[in-house]
Design goal:
With 256 residues, the chain is α/β, with parallel strands linked by helices. The protein contains eight helices and twelve strands.
């Protein structure tokens, strides 16, 4: 329907057929900057890579929500991922407000939803939490976590996982119904969950260290030499646990 990203009721004449395998919808909120696309590909390709590495049976469908591409029905996919974005959740932009409302629709339906970076922040904001520019400034590079709890659907919960971060905004207040899973010294809300249907994290399993380093290079003047060098050194070790946490995602979407 023109002007409406999803219909209010289920449709009997949906133009798709559900595959016997799991289908995950990528709600794409940004693209890789043109000068890095040739080397690294676009954001949707990042997700294709990690899921193919961990569980190639999973099907991905991409919806560019920035231009109001949404599923015809929420059951078009078994669950959804909201990606990272260069924008802030509190920017006065129509597509962000539309996506917030969609988050509340998915939450009310207990549809599996996973947030990454901007997606993590927007889920918190949409459900009553708060997102602000971090007083500590940019958080970049590979970050460790302190786990306060565990995602109950994860089969092998390693508490020493490390993920790539690249952000200056962060969740400062969780929604009332959310449970804090992990934090660190710079990021007070690094991971959280809502019931068994929402999984959310500030880090980027979909990022390679090389890509994150190239992004940091583009921001070198803004970041300053000290912040850039610290981030770059952590990324050069290439020791993020990106595929291990992608397996957490698979456990989440496949939970019975």
């Amino acid at each position: 329907t023109p002007g409406s990203p999803w219909p209010p009721e289920l449709s009997d004449d949906l133009d798709y057929e559900m595959d016997s395998n799991l289908t995950i919808g990528i709600l794409l909120t940004d693209h890789v900057v043109p000068k890095l696309i040739e080397k690294h590909g676009d954001q949707d390709e990042f997700y294709e890579y990690i899921f193919n590495k961990v569980d190639p049976s999973i099907n991905l469908k991409v919806y560019d929500v920035v231009i109001d591409e949404y599923p015809n029905d929420i059951d078009e996919c078994d669950g959804y991922i909201i990606t990272g974005s260069k924008l802030s959740t509190y920017d006065d932009v129509d597509w962000i407000k539309t996506l917030e409302e969609y988050i509340r629709t998915l939450d009310a339906s207990k549809k599996n939803l996973l947030g990454v970076c901007f997606g993590h922040q927007l889920i918190a904001q949409a459900l009553g939490g708060k997102v602000e520019k971090a007083k500590v400034g940019w958080t970049l590079g590979v970050q460790p976590y302190d786990f306060l709890s565990k995602f109950p659907w994860v089969k092998n919960h390693n508490e020493s996982v490390r993920l790539i971060h690249s952000h200056q905004d962060q969740v400062t207040e969780l929604p009332d119904k959310a449970e804090l899973i992990a934090k660190n010294d710079r990021v007070p809300v690094a991971m959280f969950r809502v019931g068994d249907h929402i999984m959310s994290m500030q880090g980027h399993p979909e990022f390679s260290e090389d890509y994150a380093n190239d992004v940091a290079n583009l921001r070198k003047e803004i970041l300053g030499e000290k912040v850039f060098n610290r981030a770059s050194q952590s990324l050069m070790k290439k020791d993020s646990d990106r595929l291990e946490v992608t397996q957490w995602w698979v456990d989440f979407f496949k939970q019975v």
